[in-house]
Design brief:
Largest sheet: 11 strands, mixed
Number of helices: 10
Shape: globular
Number of strands: 16
Order of helices and strands: EHEEHEHEEHEHEEEHEEHEHEHEHE
Radius of gyration: 20 Å
Helix content: 25-40%
Structural class: alpha/beta
Strand order of the largest sheet: 1-8-2-3-7-4-6-5-9-10-11
Bound molecules: adenosine monophosphate, magnesium ion
């Protein structure tokens, strides 16, 4: 199949809508990461998404809407708190989980009786949803297991020959996938951290951070958010996280320099590192780290990196999302640096 890569302008959006109405899959920009969109109400279309990604079909898809009232046909019940949170954070990178209505096929929800819904803020994404007149299931537009795409060129690398169209709407502003929450009467459970942070949600209700956010599931343990159980976001290189102060990080990495050894760090740290460094925002630059993270992980592969060291990020704000993705990219490999003596 030929894959067209077009700008997300009038012409591109018109073609995208035509393909989406035919049940095809289109790569679209959103503010979080690029999405692989298809009609959420058509099981065949949902299957095409799983096939294009090579994704296990028990991993549910997020349904994207353009107007708040488009939520009601998709859900059996909407808690009052969800309405308040939608009011505060939609359009934006917040996904909420609801009991699903009959309208939403099991193919879209990975067989679950709940449905995850969000209203994206990217103007092209909202225009596409409005103009095609369909709720769109849209997981990240990467091959399953690869880092999520934050540029149209990333989508092209993974999806060339697998889907008919990719729209280029520029680099993603947030850079990590949406925050996913389960909404209860007066609290929410955070299943996946993202651009809407714990601190932001805490202004509205109690926030329980699910154990799966920062810890590996044990054998046989059930993931509330199925995506979190897969090894994810991983480049081919071994990512190793180092937990310790800047000085200890620099000493440790420099004493482990060698062929194929890289670091991901901020500019200030990079100046003192003797290994090649992929710039990804430094300490207290969580938003920048989120924007750069997946591009850096993809670059590791392009450069043929074998080992990539990164410092454990701060878990404040969107830093929690960066930490969550890095832990998965590293397969939870964290080395704790002795604060007195950094030589490992
Ligand atoms: P994405 O690849 O960004 O589309 O992420 C989809 C992820 O959202 C899934 O892997 C799940 O972790 C989560 N998700 C989607 N639907 C549900 C649901 N009904 N219940 C729990 N988590 C969900
Ligand atoms: Mg994904």
């Amino acid at each position: 199949m030929e894959t067209k890569l077009l700008p997300a302008d009038d012409k591109g959006i018109a073609l995208a809508c035509q393909l989406l109405r035919q049940g095809q899959v289109v790569g679209i920009p959103t503010e979080t990461v690029y999405g692989l969109a298809a009609n959420a109400l058509d099981p065949e279309a949902a299957h095409r998404i799983y096939a294009a990604k090579g994704r296990p079909s028990d991993n549910p898809l997020i349904v994207h809407i353009a107007e708040f009232q488009d939520l009601y046909p998709l859900v059996a019940h909407c808690p009052k708190l969800a309405e308040e949170l939608a009011d505060a954070f939609w359009p934006g990178p917040l996904t909420m989980i609801f009991p699903k209505s009959e309208k939403v096929p099991a193919a879209t929800t990975g067989g679950m009786d709940t449905v995850a819904v969000r209203m994206p803020a990217h103007p092209a994404a909202r225009r596409i949803i409005k103009e095609c007149g369909l709720p769109l299931a849209a997981p990240s537009a990467n091959l399953s297991g690869k880092p999520s795409p934050t540029k149209a060129s990333h989508v092209y690398q993974d999806m060339q020959g697998r889907i008919p169209l990719i729209l280029d709407g520029g680099d993603c502003q947030v850079g990590v996938e949406s925050t996913v929450i389960a909404v209860h009467e007066d609290s929410v459970r955070l299943l996946r951290p993202g651009g809407i942070t714990v601190e932001m949600l805490s202004g509205y209700c109690d926030v329980i951070v699910d154990d799966g956010v920062l810890h590996q599931l044990k054998e046989g343990e059930k993931a509330l958010s199925p995506g979190m159980k897969y090894k994810h976001y991983a480049p081919s290189a071994q990512v190793i996280l180092l937990d310790g102060p800047e000085e200890a990080f620099i000493q440790y990495v420099n004493s482990h320099a060698g062929e194929g050894v890289y670091a991901m760090a901020g500019e200030q740290e990079a100046e003192r590192l003797t290994v090649p460094t992929l710039l990804f925002g430094g300490e207290h630059e969580e938003a920048e780290q989120a924007r750069q993270l997946f591009d850096c992980l993809r670059e590791c592969d392009e450069k043929g990196a074998k080992t990539v060291y990164a410092r454990l990020p701060d878990s404040k704000g969107v830093g929690l999302a960066v930490l969550n993705r890095l832990l998965r990219a590293a397969g939870f490999a964290v080395i704790s640096l002795d604060k007195e003596d950094a030589h490992g």
